[in-house]
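thought: fold this chain, then report.
action: predict
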Amino acid sequence: MKNHINFKRLYLTLKYDLKLNFKTYSAFVIVLFIVLFFINTIILIKRTELDIKGYNTYYFLSYFVCGFVSICTSFPLLRGKSKKMTFLMLPASNLEKFLVQFIIRIILFSGVFVLLFWLDFKLTRAIYTLFEEVKPQIENFGIFTSFHSLFNVKFYSGLFAFIVWLIVFLFANSTVFSKNTIFKTVISISIISICVLLYFVFLSNVFYHEESERLFFISENHPYTIEFLGVNSTRLFTSIFLIGSSILMLLFSFYKLKEKEV
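observation:
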């Protein structure tokens, strides 16, 4: 089947996947709700004050951990020969199958996570405030509060690019590793993190050989950077690199999926 998009067929494939894995997705949502409730409970028990910075920290850490599981388990029908045959026989193009998993594992998951985290936080805050004698100083955050930070270009351009890169990297790994995906992805991330750290240590020794404790990529005022539209050039270059490599990884993962047909 040619790799083009037929929106009716895309919808039917999405509907088929949701119906086939309804119990699995429902169980995941229930477990996610319970996990986020306990996370929010622990946050409020350990802190008497919670501002937007602290809230964002817990929000994005929770998203990374939960999203890691969701994205790394993409393409479940590729796990095992019988399931793989079912996947390949679906009356949909590879591009449509690819997009269905992207929609479910990233877009729908993100929407569900945003809603559940906000509801859990509201519920936990209401219960904690009701029974706690000393009322905690906790702001009343909105459902999209954390996203406002991402539009602060000067401080969060690198963070947004990193989030996109990480999501795409996890999604690409799900097409590369057919077995033990989560374990192999953890190993891959560890290796990449070590290589990146060593690279920046090398740059630090080159540019700051007299200041051994100064790390290159977190420096704001070294003489080798310029400002462009209010953004540090190091951050700007890093953001462009991460977004560019994300596009390449998406193409790579799509062609890895096409290889399954052979």
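thought: worth noting. The longest helix spans residues 94-131.
final: tokens above.
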